[in-house]
Design goal:
Length: about 90
């Protein structure tokens, strides 16, 4: 992660990695977190409750990206991202 990156934090509960990501990407970056459990708010991050495998959650994330590409995905749950490339296509 570096300044200006767009980070997707999958399985972001309780929010610790989102805090680290916000510090790394700075004000020019975006941190979007998603988890089945609600997290405590993290200044500078958008944390949402949802299932990353649910198309509705994926649509919410894509909408929040506003045509920006994801540069980094937290590796904890990378294996469960949808195979259709909806969220990871920019990483390939």
């Amino acid at each position: 992660m570096r300044d200006g990156d767009v980070v997707l934090d999958v399985g972001c509960h309780p929010g610790g990695w989102a805090q680290v990501a916000v510090e790394e990407v700075g004000e020019a970056g975006i941190v979007i977190g998603v988890d089945l459990q609600p997290c405590q708010p993290v200044d500078g991050a958008l944390l949402m409750v949802g299932d990353i495998t649910d198309p509705l959650t994926q649509e919410r994330i894509v909408k929040e990206l506003e045509d920006r590409q994801v540069n980094s995905v937290s590796p904890t749950y990378l294996h469960i991202l949808p195979e259709n490339g909806t969220l990871t296509k920019p990483l390939r």
